[in-house]
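Action item from last meeting closed. Structure (433 res):
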């Protein structure tokens, strides 16, 4: 009865966070980790189930290792700094260009995980609710920056984008006497996608002034999607291993109520998928106090609709896709128990950014370009059941470049630069029951 009361309270909190998550947009695209504990390990969690959030996110089979039952609640505040620069007339007396910073503000990202106590049973049940990815930029129009110059001057004008994905994962796992566990979780997603200008529909000249402009694609509603995640987990003496496969997340078409240059109705549609993710992990209890975990994660951006479609314009002027490539993330996390009430963690991850060389122009509104990430964190035990965790995550600055490309073709002697640096602060509470 006591466990069910805790579960009901957590579900109510989950619904509240779901409302908050609809207006929050993650930075980057696929978050490397989730929750204060998993983020402080740089996302290494496929074989290291240290909390409910990380276990439910990366390997549903690993929740059997948290047999006592656990509830984790975390909020990550993301401070994303994006900059877009462009230049025309490179290395000529007529060189002209500038840089513009995004003003997207700080974004809160929720994460909740609950694993019910299983007692003597070999079965484990859990529920995860996480903001799993997205991005947000808000660039003003800038006459000194060719790519953000007004359309009449050959630019695209101000650029705004918000894409966020919130994932709900009811999870079931079974442990066998051999030490192996298997788990499965249907994944239910709700996402928002907004973009202005909306380059995935042909530009229009409804007012007849010979200036073709893209519509503003911001009149959208939350869109639902489905997928599934399965995993295996082995717990040996002082070490563990795991593997999980998260299918693509297939969404309904995003429907957008837009208008042409005269304000007349211009319904738009956008089709996209969230990538398939494969994760392998190893963890070793090196000493009584020291744990080391390693994850290797494959993210199949190239196989997704929109993100993996060719970075090119169709003859009618609409963009076909972003041309992202698939990438492999490697994460290393270390945990050290200083004493009974204090645990320290550190992590590092690296993944080549998915933006292809020369295609920076198509990712001005989708700036997922950072590669190196460092994280630090700690957990303080407040009582026998309650703990407070915090983490700091820093994604080092990285820049991709390419030519300025318009529907008419690449502009000679031009360059577009997309830069990103991210800092996050994560706070979380954990309750054992």
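Sequence:
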């Amino acid at each position: 009865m006591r466990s069910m009361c805790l579960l009901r309270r957590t579900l109510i909190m989950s619904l509240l966070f779901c409302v908050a998550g609809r207006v929050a947009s993650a930075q980057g695209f696929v978050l490397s980790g989730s929750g204060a504990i998993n983020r402080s390990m740089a996302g290494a969690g496929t074989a290291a189930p240290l909390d409910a959030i990380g276990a439910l996110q990366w390997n549903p089979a690993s929740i059997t290792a948290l047999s006592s039952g656990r509830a984790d609640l975390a909020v990550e505040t993301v401070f994303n700094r994006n900059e877009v620069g462009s230049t025309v007339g490179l290395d000529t007396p007529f060189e002209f260009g500038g840089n513009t910073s995004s003003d997207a503000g700080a974004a809160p990202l929720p994460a909740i995980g609950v694993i019910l106590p299983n007692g003597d049973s070999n079965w484990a049940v859990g529920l995860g609710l996480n903001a799993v990815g997205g991005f947000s930029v808000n660039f003003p129009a800038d006459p000194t920056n060719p790519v953000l110059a007004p359309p009449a001057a050959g630019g695209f004008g101000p650029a705004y984008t918000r894409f966020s994905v919130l994932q709900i994962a009811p999870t079931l796992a079974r442990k066998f006497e051999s030490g192996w566990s298997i788990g499965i979780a249907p994944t239910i997603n709700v996402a928002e996608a907004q973009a202005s200008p909306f380059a995935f529909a042909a530009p229009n000249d409804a007012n007849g002034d010979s200036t073709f402009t893209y519509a503003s694609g911001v009149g959208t509603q939350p869109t639902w999607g489905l997928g599934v995640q399965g995993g295996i987990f082995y717990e040996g003496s002082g070490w563990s291993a795991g593997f999980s496969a998260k299918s693509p997340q297939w969404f309904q078409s995003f429907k957008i109520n837009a208008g042409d240059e005269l304000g007349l109705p211009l319904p738009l549609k956008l089709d996209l998928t969230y990538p398939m993710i494969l994760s392998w992990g190893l963890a070793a209890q090196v000493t009584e106090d020291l744990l080391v975990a390693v994850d290797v994660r494959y993210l199949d951006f190239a196989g997704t609709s929109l993100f993996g479609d060719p970075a090119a314009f169709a003859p009618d002027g609409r963009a076909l896709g972003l041309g992202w490539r698939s990438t492999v993330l490697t994460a290393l996390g270390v945990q050290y128990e200083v004493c009974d009430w204090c645990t320290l963690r550190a992590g590092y991850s690296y993944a080549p950014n998915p933006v292809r060389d020369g295609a920076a122009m198509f990712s001005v509104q989708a700036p997922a370009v950072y590669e190196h990430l460092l994280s630090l964190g700690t957990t303080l035990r407040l009582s026998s059941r309650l703990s407070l965790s915090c983490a700091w995550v820093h994604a080092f600055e990285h820049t991709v470049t390419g030519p300025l490309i318009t529907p008419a073709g690449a502009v000679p002697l031009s360059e577009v630069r997309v830069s990103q640096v991210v800092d996050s602060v994560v706070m979380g509470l954990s309750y054992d029951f």
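Note appended to the action item: Residues 2-432 form a domain with the Porin fold (CATH 2.40.160.60).
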